Amino acid sequence: QVQLVESGGGLVQAGGSLRLSCEASARTFTSYAVGWFRQAPGKEREFVAAINWSGGITDYADSVKGRFTISRDNAKNTVYLRMNSLKPLDTAVYYCAASELDIATIDDAFGYWGQGTQVTVSS
C-alpha cells in the first residue's frame, strides 16, 4: 500500500509560481512511477506530468511543457511539481498518483491516489 499526501496548493496570480509536493508513506515508493493529474470544475481529470522511479524519465502534457517541471527526491519519498508562468486555465484540483509501471500517462495505470490540493490562479 502507498499513501500519498499532496501539499503546496493555494491562490496565486497569473504569471506566478507554485511548487506542489507529493509525499508517500511506503518505503518501496522508490519503485513506483508517479504522476500528477488535475481536474477543473465541470471537466474530466487530465494528465499533467509523470516521472519514472529514478527520475530519469519524465513526460508532460502539451499544455504545461516548458512551464511545469516534475522531479523527485527518493530519499524523502517525495515528488514535486514546480509550476511557473501559471495561467487561470491551470486552476484545478491537483492529484498525485503512483503506478507500478515504469512510467504512465493514463489514470487507469495508477493504483494509488492522494486526496488532491487546490490550485487557483487569478487573472
Task: Report on this structure.
The protein is an all-beta fold and 123 residues long. The protein has strands spanning 4-7, 10-13, 18-24, 33-39, 46-51, 58-60, 68-73, 78-83, 92-99, 112-113, 117-122. The protein contains no helices and 11 strands. Strands 2, 4, 5, 6, 9, 10 and 11 form a 7-stranded mixed beta sheet that branches. The chain starts with a strand and ends with a strand.
Overall pLDDT confidence: 95
Number of helices: 0
Shape: globular
By secondary-structure content and strand pairing, the structural class works out as mainly beta
Largest sheet: 7 strands, mixed
Which keywords apply here?
123 residues, mainly beta, seven-stranded mixed β-sheet, four-stranded antiparallel β-sheet, globular
Which helices and strands appear, and what pairs or packs with what?
Elements: E1 4-7, E2 10-13, E3 18-24, E4 33-39, E5 46-51, E6 58-60, E7 68-73, E8 78-83, E9 92-99, E10 112-113, E11 117-122
Parallel strand pairs: 2-11
Antiparallel strand pairs: 1-3, 3-8, 4-5, 4-9, 5-6, 7-8, 9-10, 9-11
Briefly characterize the structure.
With 123 residues, the chain is an all-beta fold. It has strands at residues 4-7, 10-13, 18-24, 33-39, 46-51, 58-60, 68-73, 78-83, 92-99, 112-113, 117-122.
